Amino acid sequence: MVKVTVWNEYRHERNDDKIAAVYPEGIHGQIASFLKDAGLDVRTATLDEPEHGLTEEVLNNTDVLVWWGHVAHKEVRDEIVDRVHQRVLQGMGLVVLHSGHMSKIFMKLMGTSCDLKWREAGEKERLWVMNPSHPIAEGIGEYIELEHEEMYGTHFDVPAPDELIFVGWFEGGNVFPSGSTYRRGNGKIFYFQPGHESYPTYYHPEIQKVIVNGVNWCEPTKRAYPVYGRSQELETIKREVLL
């Protein structure tokens, strides 16, 4: 069974009654609930827990980390970011949701600003499936339609993805690479754009399906992390002495 940790800064839901009404158990609680329903082994962690809930023990027992953040990216301690980064390189999967594109861990893994255009106007979004044979798109039709979402628009300052799964179109005219995959070291990364805190996006059954698929795709492979550094000879090398 895939072991999943759902991380959320958990600030909006405690500081804004309107957002708390949408996610009374926190965004992490809602995501954890449908991941559990899908048969995954799920725990949660939040920013204000000791070590942000991401102790070495927790991370060593996490196959896939799901990350949601927005207003408190800078409060995440650098040593915790380094810890997560190393685990991703070693093979832990990472699913980054919505405004997690500006999280320290995603920016460190991408090596770019990860910036974009945005607009809060409650626009309809249509997420078109660009790669219908990909496991993350399994069970999804030609597109997913959301009645209201925050607009994210190009240019999105990230490296070219290994695979582009979804492209989002917004009724204001913008488009965005809404679902992309990357590999870093032994780890697999899935970025998925929908999920503004004031909209009930994570109750949408097809959004839930994509996130479940993304978690399963990010499950670590069984291959061991490579050994780096000085290496012994595999074959006997004939050496000539130069006089």
UniProtKB/TrEMBL annotation:
InterPro entries: Class_I_gatase-like, ThuA-like, Trehalose_catabolism_ThuA_prok. It comes from the Bacteria. Residues 3-218 form the ThuA-like domain. This is PalA. It comes from Paenibacillus durus ATCC 35681. The lineage of its organism: Bacteria, Bacillati, Bacillota, Bacilli, Bacillales.
